[in-house]
Amino acid sequence: MLLGRKDPDQGISHCSQGALRVGGQAVIEGVMMRAPKSMAIAVRRPSGEIVVKRKGLHLFSEKHRLSKLPLVRGVMTLLSALVLGIQALNFSANQALAEGRRKRIPGH
Hints:
The chain has one helix and six strands. By secondary structure, the chain is an alpha+beta fold.
């Protein structure tokens, strides 16, 4: 990226069905990747094990005609990204915390 210009193929993976838009976000000891219809979170536990959570997405924009309006679409996209990001961070924090609790509690 030079002087704020984006590469036209940035964020697009080419596959046999055409271009696939994929984005990601760092989480605690891992990464969350999001495609248009699904997301996955991969987190490394303190023991070294990698835990993966997959989830299909059902977006508001596919269900309602109001979401076709530019301002509404932008707000809904922002809110859905915020919610998915918080869910991913909570999942990764719980994985790190659960492993720490097992070490401190005898018999678990």
